[in-house]
Amino acid sequence: MNHTEENSDIRFDVAVVGGGLAGLIAATLIGRQGRSVVLFEQAKQPGGRAQTTVKNDVRFNLGPRALYQSGDALRLLRKLNVAVQGAPPNAGIPLGYYQGREYRLPTSLGSLLTTHLLSIRDKWKLTRFLKSLPSLKTESLHRISSLEWLTDHFGTGALASFLGALFRLTTYAGDLSRLSASAAIEQLQIALGGNVLYIDGGWQSLVDGLREQAHQAGVTIRSSSHVTAVESVSGEVMLTTSRGFVETVTSAILAVGPDAACSLLRLPADHELVLWADRRQPVRAACLDVALTQLPRPGHRFALGLDRPLYLSVHSAAAHLAPEGVAVIHVMKYLASNTIESAGGVEQELELMLDRVQPGWRTHLLTRRTLPLMTVAHSHPEPREGGINGRPAVTVEGYPGIYVAGDWVGGRSQLADAAAASAETAAQLLLQSMDSAPRSDHQYV
Ligand SMILES: Cc1cc2nc3c(=O)[nH]c(=O)nc-3n(C[C@H](O)[C@H](O)[C@H](O)COP(=O)(O)OP(=O)(O)OC[C@H]3O[C@@H](n4cnc5c(N)ncnc54)[C@H](O)[C@@H]3O)c2cc1C
Fold first, then answer.
1. pLDDT (tens digit, 9 = 90+) per residue, 128-164?
2. Which of 54, 138, 190, 398 could disulfide-link to 182, CB 3.0 to 4.6 Å?
3. What is the DSSP secondary structure assignment for residue 395, as one 8-state letter?
4. In ligand 1, which atom is closest to the CA atom of 18?
5. Does the beta carbon of 20 lie inside 6 Å of ligand 1?
6. Nearest CA to ligand 1 atom 27
7. Is residue 146 classed exposed, middle or buried when 0-12, 13-18 and 19+ CB atoms within 10 A define those classes?
8. pLDDT tens, 346-361?
């Protein structure tokens, strides 16, 4: 049977809408427990924002990607037997730009001693902060912004700018006034505690591995299937696709963004999820992805703007992403949520960052692309919402049998780790609630 066809007679237990990391993880976890699962993905291929595209033999993730080694995504990928191959960033001498000047970033004891970025007093303060970081308690910091916390503890000079850049680097938040201090500090603890991996072959290799495991768990993936409505009817869940196909299941997980989830369920305007979705501010970024035949300054493979929200990293220095010798560079601007930037203006700023770190790069250009407005995560963990704890739960009030998952759901982790953690929680709750229900065992109805 061709499982991409919609007209099968199989009666499934569970439907998952969305084939990004969250949907693939949730579907595989449920399939492994013997429940029959159908996954709908509107695009031609699953993967969502974790897809990698190949251009001139170069593998470009959709902007820069770093997988947290002590995060929930890697834990679940390993649990699901997905092979994860890659290496931590290989930065060379990392650079920081502050007040128009280039500095060596203090990322090791040696560079801390030699950098001209910080005064002796600031170097001592930074050492003391990094020593206290692993045991720093964050319970009282959910409703304080990371900007306020930084200013209170470190003022407004170079040290505060450096720590602000580290908060941006680990959370992608373009606006530190919208990032709760607890979320910023916890993410820094995870990053400095376990480092990150750049993945060989790009994040597509994670998608491909998950897809394979989903297949082995018996999950049916229906690509090019756009779900238009999800209804709870007499204790069952009915899904309708844009081609008019109707699937009836016991439970469903909506692993899509918050607006899509609200619209699929046709939630009333005063539903708490709709009100939250209206208030939330997405985390967004503009990216310039570049491949060069050689690096003009091979010793400098990582850079951050300290008083500008800019990032650059040579991902191919750690991960296999291109033929030998080709440098794959991701340049990014962390965008503030409530400002609209012109695509041309932001591209110029990204090119300027590349000019600074790798002057003359245009001579070695193999291929490039610009992604001026990317949704990194569907919501900031905002102080006014109580940080990560303010995100919606995986259950939807008033809609039994229906769960949501994604990087905007649940009180654990951020970014892909939040997508994975919420997928796991949704799968666990769904399986618990189905435990007493009879199994369909792929029966034909
Ligand atoms: C530039 C950038 C950099 C990032 N860097 C990092 C990083 O370094 N580390 C990290 O941990 N995370 C990072 N992330 C975040 C990470 O990529 C996401 O959190 C994660 O991929 C989200 O997975 P998801 O499954 O929740 O959502 P998605 O990947 O968005 O998947 C949702 C899927 O649902 C499908 N869909 C939507 N509506 C429907 C419908 N009605 N019917 C059928 N299908 C539907 C979509 O097509 C999509 O495939 C980054 C993201 C970006 C954009």
1. 999 999 999 999 999 999 999 999 999 999 999 999 9
2. 138
3. B
4. 34
5. yes
6. 20
7. buried
8. 999 999 999 999 999 9
Supply the residue whose CA is at minimum distance from atom 49 of ligand 1: 48
Does 1.10.405.10 match the CATH number of domain 105-195? yes
66 Cβ closer than 6 Å to some ligand 1 atom: yes
pTM, to two decimals = 0.96
155: left (phi over 0), alpha (psi -120 to 50) or beta: left
Instruction: Evaluate whether 248 touches 66 at the Cβ level (below 8 Å).
Output: no
CATH class of the 14-49+205-280+381-434 domain in this structure: alpha beta
Ligand 1 site, residue 377, Cβ cutoff 6 A: yes
**What are the domain boundaries of the chain?**
14-49+205-280+381-434, 105-195
Contact between 324 and 414 under an 8 Å Cβ cutoff? The reply is no
Which of 256, 312, 413 maximizes ligand 1 atoms within 8 Å of its Cβ, making it the mutation to test the pocket? Answer: 256
For residues 415 and 376, is the Cβ–Cβ distance under 8 A? yes
Handedness of CA 377, 159, 316, 349 (dihedral sign): positive
